[in-house]
């Protein structure tokens, strides 16, 4: 099977799994968050913040650097030993964090940290197995592991326990079930030696791993410095902010991360072929832009309706932050692709510089914006993410010779579609019509208007990179024949 065929198969498998996972995640989160409310969700948010940063240090970048490794048995023994050592130290640290958590946040927070600590050890085996599957472009199996684990853990275990009144412990139980299942399924598909070696011995994957780890740590800081800032306001504020962030960020991240993994693997295989690299990058960027930009354009002007429909009226305070972050989340989706392509082409330094710039700008902006509430925090996040995207796109353009006009061609159609989707038509409906029915009819009308514009002006909306992608799929070929008549 050719690299192009493998890449398309991987993308298809990834997005089928992603669609299932996103639907399951939203359904489960809807029930759990409606049941628990902002404060318990915010309490568990402190645990996830701690685990997020520790997981990056434990992984040490091997989750990505092993993709370019030759998988020598001795190297795997050393990597596994390092991961086990790091995860054991992380578990001890999380347990120790239970005491300050109990002092500042109460006994419940301390208990959560103590009971969550052992799950750190699971990172070791999971990281190696998933890296092997990524190397072989076995993204269908990755989706079985990740999506299957999530579907059983959160919608089944988490929702059931929440409905039975177990409160925040339902989130911790789902956390454990998902982690254990992901490790078991990943190892089943990609078994490797469990022999241990000298964790302090050097490895060939270590150099790239350290670079990737540095980027990942900065990435985590960029993604979570806002949570740390809001967390100082208390569990309720953190829970409200996390609801807005989850609802705005999850579609963007899931849309991009699955394609990001495929792009990194495919770009690594292409080597220094700039022409094919350019086609791969612009094609992926055009697909993401066409999906994400109109969707978030709609979300920006319909945030109150979306929050009420998804989480319920008691979460309405999250609507302002959600609307403020929509522009930033389009940038997040597109930025994930640029970062993956730069990393695969030896541009880790550019990625790291862009992330540091984003972190500095976001930190400064958040110190000011925090005085203006959650909306100010959302605007600061969007500003920093857009600047990061521009920096990385410029670096990618210089590396594989892309002119600014190519980016304009990719973005012009999605931006016009976003303007159409952002029109608040539902607000014009008579009050006698239920809000959900009015907004649903308006959404159908706006979607129809966008499709009509595509049919009338196909060259404007369907850029050459997008056409190149569409021509590789049967439905895409038929659609191009239809609009080009």
UniProtKB/TrEMBL annotation:
Keywords in alphabetical order? Cell membrane, Membrane, Transmembrane, Transmembrane helix
Protein name as it appears in the record: Lipopolysaccharide biosynthesis protein
* Annotated organism of origin: Pseudoduganella buxea
Main subcellular location of this protein, as a coarse class: membrane
- Domain of life, per UniProt, equals Bacteria
State the compartments where it is located: Cell membrane
Record membrane topology: Multi-pass membrane protein
Q: Which InterPro entries match?
A: Poly_Biosynth_Transport
Which Pfam families does this one have? Polysacc_synt_3
Q: Which family does it belong to?
A: Belongs to the polysaccharide synthase family.
* Transmembrane helix recorded as keyword: yes
Q: Which GO terms describe its cellular component?
A: plasma membrane
Sequence intervals crossing the membrane = 43-67, 79-100, 112-129, 149-167, 173-190, 280-298, 318-338, 350-368, 374-391, 412-429, 441-462
């Amino acid at each position: 099977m050719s690299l192009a065929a493998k890449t398309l198969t991987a993308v298809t498998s990834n997005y089928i799994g992603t669609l299932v996972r996103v639907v399951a995640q939203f359904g489960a989160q809807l029930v759990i968050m409606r049941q628990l409310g902002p404060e318990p969700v915010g309490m568990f948010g402190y645990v996830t913040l701690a685990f997020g940063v520790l997981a990056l240090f434990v992984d040490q970048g091997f989750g990505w650097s092993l993709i370019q490794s030759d998988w020598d048995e001795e190297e795997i023994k050393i990597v596994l030993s390092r991961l086990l050592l790091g995860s054991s130290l992380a578990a001890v640290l999380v347990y120790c964090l239970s005491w300050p958590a109990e002092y500042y946040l109460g006994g419940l927070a301390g208990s959560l940290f103590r009971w969550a600590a052992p799950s750190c050890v699971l990172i070791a085996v999971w990281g190696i197995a998933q890296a092997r599957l990524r190397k072989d472009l076995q993204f269908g199996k990755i989706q079985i592991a990740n999506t299957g684990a999530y579907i059983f853990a959160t919608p089944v275990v988490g929702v059931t326990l929440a409905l039975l009144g177990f409160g925040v412990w339902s989130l911790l139980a789902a956390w454990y079930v998902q982690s254990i299942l992901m490790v078991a399924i990943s190892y089943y598909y990609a078994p490797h030696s469990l022999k241990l070696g000298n964790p302090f011995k050097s490895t060939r994957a270590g150099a790239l791993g350290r670079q990737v780890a540095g980027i990942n740590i900065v990435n985590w800081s960029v993604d979570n410095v806002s949570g740390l800032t809001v967390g100082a306001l208390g569990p309720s504020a953190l829970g409200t902010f996390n609801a807005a962030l989850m609802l705005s960020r999850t579609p963007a991240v899931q849309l991009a991360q699955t394609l990001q993994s495929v792009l990194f693997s495919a770009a690594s295989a292409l080597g220094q072929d700039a022409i094919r690299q350019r086609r791969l990058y612009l094609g992926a960027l055009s697909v993401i832009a066409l999906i994400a930009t109109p969707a978030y354009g709609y979300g920006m002007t319909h945030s109150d309706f979306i929050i009420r429909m998804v989480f319920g009226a008691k979460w309405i305070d999250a609507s302002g932050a959600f609307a403020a972050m929509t522009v930033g989340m389009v940038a997040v989706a597109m930025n994930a692709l640029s970062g993956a392509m730069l990393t695969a082409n030896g541009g880790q330094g550019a990625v790291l510089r862009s992330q540091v710039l984003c972190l500095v700008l976001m930190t400064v902006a958040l110190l000011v914006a925090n005085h203006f509430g959650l909306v100010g925090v959302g605007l600061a996040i969007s500003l920093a993410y857009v600047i990061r995207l521009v920096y990385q796109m410029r670096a990618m353009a210089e590396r594989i010779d892309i002119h600014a006009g190519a980016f304009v061609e990719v973005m012009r159609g999605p931006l016009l579609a976003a303007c159409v989707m952002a029109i608040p038509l539902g607000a014009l409906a008579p009050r006698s019509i239920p809000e959900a029915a009015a907004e649903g009819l308006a959404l159908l009308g706006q979607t129809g208007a966008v499709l009509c514009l595509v049919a009338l002006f196909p060259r404007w909306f369907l850029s050459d990179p997008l056409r190149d992608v569409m021509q590789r799929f049967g439905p895409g070929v038929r659609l191009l024949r239809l609009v080009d008549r």
